[in-house]
Structures are given as C-alpha cells and as structure tokens.
Amino acid sequence: MPVNAKLTGIGAAPGVSVGKAVLVRTFDLDSVEALRKTISKEDSEREIKRYKDAVKVALDELESLEKDVKGRLGEDKAAIFTAQRLMLEDPTLEYTIETKISENLFTAERACLEACEEQAKMLESMDDPYFAARAVDMRDIGKRLVRCLLGIQDRGSLKSIPEGSVVVAYDLAPSDTACLEIDKVVGIVLDRGGRTSHTAILARSLGIPAVVGTQNATQLVSQGDILTLDGDKGEVGINPDEAVLSAFTARVQKFIDEKKRLSLLKDLPAMTKDGKRVELAANIGNVSDVPMVLNAGADGVGLFRTEFLFLDRTSVPTEEEQFEAYKEVLSKLSPRPIVVRTLDIGGDKEIPYLGLPKEENPFLGLRAIRLCLKERELFRTQLRALLRAASYGNLKIMFPMISNLNELREAKKEVLKVKEELESQGTKVPDFEVGIMVEIPSAAIDADILARECDFFSIGTNDLVQYTIAVDRGNPEVAYLSDPFHPAVLRLIARTIEEGHKHGIWVGMCGEMAGMPMAAPLLVGMGIDELSMAPGMVLKIKDLLRKLDYETCKGIWDKVREMSTREEIKGYLQSVLEELGFAEAS
Ligand code: PEP
Ligand code: MG
C-alpha cells in the first residue's frame, strides 16, 4: 500500500487516533467442507446428536462470556449474550435445524448455518434497525454452532492483541467486540456496518473512534500498517509519511488530553462559580443512545426525538414496541428527568408509510402537533405507550410546534383522556410534567399566555430561527442568514425565559444553540434553567459553565440586548470566551 493512502467510510464514533492495524480474521467459513455436503438418511440421527452437543457447548461459552463481560464492562454490555442464549434456545430455530438434517439431509454444520441465515434474513426484512442488529446476532449464533461442531476453540486471538491496536475487520459480531481487550484498542475500522450497528454503538459508548462501512478496508490494509483514524469525518489514513504522522499525532495527543481533562468533570455539578445551577441534558433519538447519556455525565434527557422510532421502517411501531422503547430509556436513566417529545413528523421528516399528501410548504404545513391532533389514533397510541412507561422513571411529556393555546389545551385533553382510560383499566399512572417546545415565534410572543397552562418550556432554536428569520433550515443557499444570534431571535428567547419565570415554570433549550459555547454565557445571563444538547457536547459546556459567573453573565446579556447586529454580538461573545481562556470559541 503506498504511503498516505486514504479510506473513507461512515464516522461511527467520534475522535481521532493513531495505531497499528490488527486484522481480525474471524473464523473462515469458506474453508469448511461440511457446509457443502449432504448425508445419508441413516446418519441423520447422529448429526442431530452432534448438533445438540454443539448447542450445549455454545450455551456454556455464551454463559461464560456473559459472566466475563458483565464483570469487565457491566450488565448492559453482557445483555447481548443473554439475548443470544435465548435465541439459541428458541424452539423454532431448533425445529428448522432438525428438519434440515432429517429431511434435507444436510450435515449439522450446514443445517445450523443455513437455518440461522434464514432467520437473520427474516429479521432484516423487517426493515427496522433494531431487528437488523438482531440479524447480526443470529449470524453470530450460526457461526458459533459451526465452530463448536468442528471442535474449534472460541477465538482467543481477540484477547491477545498488542497495546495501541486499530482493529480492522470485515464485520465484528457483538460477541467479537465484547471479547476485545478494550483498553488496548485505539480504533475500529470495518468494511461493513452503519451508525446503528452494535459495534458502532459500543465504540461510541466506550469512546473509541470508529469508522465503519468502508467497503474494502480488509483488502487495502495489511497487518501492522500504521493507521490514522478520524471518527468524526469517517476517514482512515494508511501508512502516513512522517510529516502527516507527526501532525496527526499532535492532534491525537490534544484530543486525549482534552478527553481526560473533561472526563474528570463527569460527576461534578453543572453550575457557575457563584453557584447558579443549570441542568445539562442530552438530546437523544433512540434507546441505543442511552450509554452516551451516561458517559456524558448528563443530568438527564432534555429532548427525546421519538420520531426516530418511526423512521427507517415500513409500518407504524405498535403501542407495545413504543412502550418497550420508552420504558428502557426511562428505567435505564432513572431517576434523571427524561423529556419525551411527542411525534414531530412532517417538515423535512417524511414517513412514507403514513401516506400523507405532499404539501407545497411542508415546514408550514401539517407537522408535529398539528398532525397528531388530526391523526388522533397515532397520537393516542404514543400517549398510551408513554403513560404506561411513566412509572419506570421520571417522565416529562413535551408537545412540539405549539403555535397557540388551543393546541396546547387540546393536546393536554388527549393526555388526560388516555390517563383516565388507563387508570380505569387498572394501570397506575404517576404524576408527570407536561410542557411545550417554544419554536414558533407566536409561542414565544404569547409565552405569558402559554406559561399559565403548562409545566415547562423548552426553546427549539432550530425552528425558532427558521420561522423568525424566514430562512429554510435545510437550504444551503440561505444558510448565511440562519443564525440564533440575530437580535430578533435573542429577544424571543429572552422573552420566553422571562415570561416562563414570571409564571413559575422552568425554561430550557434543546435546539442546537444550547450546545454552542458562545451562547452559554448569554443564556446563563438570561436565566436559562436547562440546556440540552448532543451528548458529546455536555462535558465541554459543563467545563465552560463552571468557569462562568452568573452575575457577570447577567451583565453580558444586558450589554448584548443593546446591540443591533449579530456580527457585533458574536464579536463581543467571542471576546468573552477568549478572556475566559476557553479554547474553542465557536
Ligand atoms: C428545534 O427546532 O430546535 C428542535 C430542537 O427540534 P427539531 O430540530 O427536532 O425540529
Ligand atoms: Mg423543531
């Protein structure tokens, strides 16, 4: 491979690293003759016995893996093996394998592999990222059974890799990843996989940079190659020359030092020097984001975008599926507050299977709460799932795109109806807060009216900017106009906070502005109670918050409110950050 060669893929876990490539050759199925053979009828009983013996060995292996991983990485990481054990014991799988042996006259190896492949394909066809991930487990089980049938030991190779390794593989099964001695791995590169694959999720939660979906990393990379990894951009450099390597190494060192320094803040309270507490929460879109919330040391979830449970599939998730997802997030993060936003479909988030008519101006159309109040069954199903899950943690329900009081009243009425219905069926529903997103100018202007009838506000600056400045948030041609530091947007934010407080409710922010260092002194000065952002930003903002002084921040806002242009405002805020010695000022 020439020096400075490059590979690109999907940035699946952020960060940069340099290390030596360790090509993981997972067990090579192509070399197994038995996978192409048939048997005679008389041999079928013997093959079924071989299969049953292999199941016992596989179950033992899974059990010991479960114990090992539980001890090293915790219960949630070990759950993969519990799930695989249950899948292996499934009578349907057993029946399919035995039929393939006794009727198709397949060898036990072939019957196991083909049966698992069929089940995996079936799971994949469900077009749901969760089940697609289960398909990986099913294939993992198939391979394990073949290996056990051949009497090959569980792979120890992954456990004895050298310090500073970048693991390069075609794909890593969940059990492979869990076998890795994580403290020796500085990066992961895969031919396959996407952002929601198991390995990507694990890498993110462990803070190991990962690039997946490269297509051909295993062909282009050789054992021992030096690799540079950029998990944000999804880039892998192969055998860099000295100049490139030393520049990259400096970046890595900076990244490591910063990460170490920030990680020390994880358990410290999010408050200014003079004791003003600001809750720092994370935005999530899926159950798989929970580990990131925990790793970020976030105080809770300020925005759970539930529409992500509806995307990338072919039908509406059932009440039961939604209930399981909400329950998992609430219980795993309990007692932290979890603000669950009801469906925000429409605008740029299209869901083809709902068959909604095309609109001329989708961002001004049947979106979010408007759609839910029209499609009541869709709304009710979600509310039922949410209220059933409420007793598992600290739930707060939030309605998106509220533009007037009638919508808020109507949405609350629906919540009350669902609550009464559940209670009449014997389900206890604990008390929970109900709030709204303030992301339409009319809601910010009427903040005093709305505050009287809800428990909290969360300011959605992504939409508030788009609707206040009349600038499509997805159109690059007008992106230069889109800026939360526009004085009109700042006035609406300040008004929302002031009116919220006057009426005794808390006010947070969950738009992108909440994770901008430059905005922090200003929002603290305005009196914001909570900031919710991408999990990866929480520690950085906590670091900044702990350097701020509430009284000084109030003065900063007093100054900014007199300024006329965003350039003036941003120039000033930049100087505030520089004075604080805060490195990244944007
Ligand atoms: C917002 O509009 O600021 C917001 C957080 O919601 P979304 O980005 O999902 O529209
Ligand atoms: Mg929005």
TrEMBL record:
<keyword id="KW-0808">Transferase</keyword>
<feature type="binding site">
    <location>
        <begin position="462"/>
        <end position="463"/>
    </location>
    <ligand>
        <name>phosphoenolpyruvate</name>
    </ligand>
</feature>
<dbReference type="InterPro" id="IPR040442">
    <property type="entry name" value="Pyrv_kinase-like_dom_sf"/>
</dbReference>
<keyword id="KW-0175">Coiled coil</keyword>
<keyword id="KW-0460">Magnesium</keyword>
<dbReference type="InterPro" id="IPR008731">
    <property type="entry name" value="PTS_EIN"/>
</dbReference>
<keyword id="KW-0598">Phosphotransferase system</keyword>
<dbReference type="InterPro" id="IPR036637">
    <property type="entry name" value="Phosphohistidine_dom_sf"/>
</dbReference>
<feature type="coiled-coil region">
    <location>
        <begin position="41"/>
        <end position="68"/>
    </location>
</feature>
<dbReference type="InterPro" id="IPR036618">
    <property type="entry name" value="PtsI_HPr-bd_sf"/>
</dbReference>
<dbReference type="Pfam" id="PF02896">
    <property type="entry name" value="PEP-utilizers_C"/>
</dbReference>
<dbReference type="InterPro" id="IPR050499">
    <property type="entry name" value="PEP-utilizing_PTS_enzyme"/>
</dbReference>
<feature type="binding site">
    <location>
        <position position="341"/>
    </location>
    <ligand>
        <name>phosphoenolpyruvate</name>
    </ligand>
</feature>
<feature type="binding site">
    <location>
        <position position="473"/>
    </location>
    <ligand>
        <name>phosphoenolpyruvate</name>
    </ligand>
</feature>
<dbReference type="InterPro" id="IPR018274">
    <property type="entry name" value="PEP_util_AS"/>
</dbReference>
<dbReference type="Pfam" id="PF05524">
    <property type="entry name" value="PEP-utilisers_N"/>
</dbReference>
<dbReference type="GO" id="GO:0016301">
    <property type="term" value="F:kinase activity"/>
</dbReference>
<keyword id="KW-0813">Transport</keyword>
<dbReference type="InterPro" id="IPR006318">
    <property type="entry name" value="PTS_EI-like"/>
</dbReference>
<protein>
    <recommendedName>
        <fullName>Phosphoenolpyruvate-protein phosphotransferase</fullName>
        <ecNumber>2.7.3.9</ecNumber>
    </recommendedName>
</protein>
<keyword id="KW-0762">Sugar transport</keyword>
<dbReference type="Pfam" id="PF00391">
    <property type="entry name" value="PEP-utilizers"/>
</dbReference>
<feature type="binding site">
    <location>
        <position position="305"/>
    </location>
    <ligand>
        <name>phosphoenolpyruvate</name>
    </ligand>
</feature>
<comment type="function">
    <text>General (non sugar-specific) component of the phosphoenolpyruvate-dependent sugar phosphotransferase system (sugar PTS). This major carbohydrate active-transport system catalyzes the phosphorylation of incoming sugar substrates concomitantly with their translocation across the cell membrane. Enzyme I transfers the phosphoryl group from phosphoenolpyruvate (PEP) to the phosphoryl carrier protein (HPr).</text>
</comment>
<keyword id="KW-0479">Metal-binding</keyword>
<feature type="active site" description="Tele-phosphohistidine intermediate">
    <location>
        <position position="198"/>
    </location>
</feature>
<feature type="binding site">
    <location>
        <position position="463"/>
    </location>
    <ligand>
        <name>Mg(2+)</name>
    </ligand>
</feature>
<dbReference type="InterPro" id="IPR023151">
    <property type="entry name" value="PEP_util_CS"/>
</dbReference>
<keyword id="KW-0963">Cytoplasm</keyword>
<dbReference type="InterPro" id="IPR008279">
    <property type="entry name" value="PEP-util_enz_mobile_dom"/>
</dbReference>
<feature type="domain" description="Phosphotransferase system enzyme I N-terminal">
    <location>
        <begin position="8"/>
        <end position="134"/>
    </location>
</feature>
<feature type="binding site">
    <location>
        <position position="439"/>
    </location>
    <ligand>
        <name>Mg(2+)</name>
    </ligand>
</feature>
<dbReference type="InterPro" id="IPR000121">
    <property type="entry name" value="PEP_util_C"/>
</dbReference>
<dbReference type="GO" id="GO:0005737">
    <property type="term" value="C:cytoplasm"/>
</dbReference>
<dbReference type="InterPro" id="IPR024692">
    <property type="entry name" value="PTS_EI"/>
</dbReference>
<feature type="active site" description="Proton donor">
    <location>
        <position position="510"/>
    </location>
</feature>
<dbReference type="GO" id="GO:0009401">
    <property type="term" value="P:phosphoenolpyruvate-dependent sugar phosphotransferase system"/>
</dbReference>
<dbReference type="GO" id="GO:0008965">
    <property type="term" value="F:phosphoenolpyruvate-protein phosphotransferase activity"/>
</dbReference>
<keyword id="KW-0418">Kinase</keyword>
<feature type="coiled-coil region">
    <location>
        <begin position="401"/>
        <end position="428"/>
    </location>
</feature>
<dbReference type="InterPro" id="IPR015813">
    <property type="entry name" value="Pyrv/PenolPyrv_kinase-like_dom"/>
</dbReference>
<comment type="similarity">
    <text>Belongs to the PEP-utilizing enzyme family.</text>
</comment>
